[in-house]
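for ur thesis appendix - Ribosome maturation factor RimM. copy paste whatever u need, i formatted it the way the template wanted (i think)
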Amino acid sequence: MELFLTGVVLKPKGLKGELKVKPVTDFPESFLTRREYYIGKTPEDAVLRKVQSARFHQGFAWLVFEGAGSREGAEALVGCGLYVTRDALVAMPDDRAYIHELIGLDVFDETEGRVGKISDVLQMPAHDVYEVDTGDRKVLIPAVEDFITETDLEKGMVRLKRFKEFL
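the 3d part is after this line
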């Protein structure tokens, strides 16, 4: 089963097992409605836990999980990731995509044709950057409209312009 990271447990609060969670999703409001997460240091060791209560405050989710209703139970989860299955992911708007959907897409330049595949997406402060593996080297392309002209998940491709500028 493939799991996707949506948050990271930072620290416990109080004596009743409440956890401060840093969202790593574009949809932090989903923490208020999601009733279960896989929790673990890695996706491979994550176990399913039910949410007992959830609130959102100052950019962080505050969660209590069943079976972790004490400070000691909460402390054991510090540093763990909160994961969800693919079918539990929030649907992206048409003009957006999850990183896992972009990795592996073929990259085409408007004049050069196919130039490689997206091998990674780097999340930078200003905008994402696509790492394109050309076979000979890896090239970093800013994921902005000035360079990316089309992203088609169904066709499995990204079209860009001015690829030679990055070589």
